[in-house]
Amino acid sequence: MIDGLGKKLLELRQASGQTRKEVAPKLNISVSVLANYENDIRNPSLEVLKKLAEYYHCSADYLLGIDTANTAKMIDVSMLNDKQHQLLQALLQTIQE
Asked: Which of 18, 28, 39, 79 has a CA between 20 and 30 Å from the CA of residue 96?
């Protein structure tokens, strides 16, 4: 088992205010499979791990315990147009300086 994965998945789901019944269909898995992941009974495939990271807007590194601080949280910017994306990048560069 991947140490801590189940706990992280459970915490992320609870933080989102959703039930297993709400999350599982969005990942194309059953409620029982999601429960097995959260209870450290079963590990997800790489494909499902990627879906979990995307769904919870975090990195796979965080889920796997590589990035323990969860500093690599992801923000979905897919709705931004090119100009907005450029402005966001400029803002982030300014903040990092």
From this structure: 79
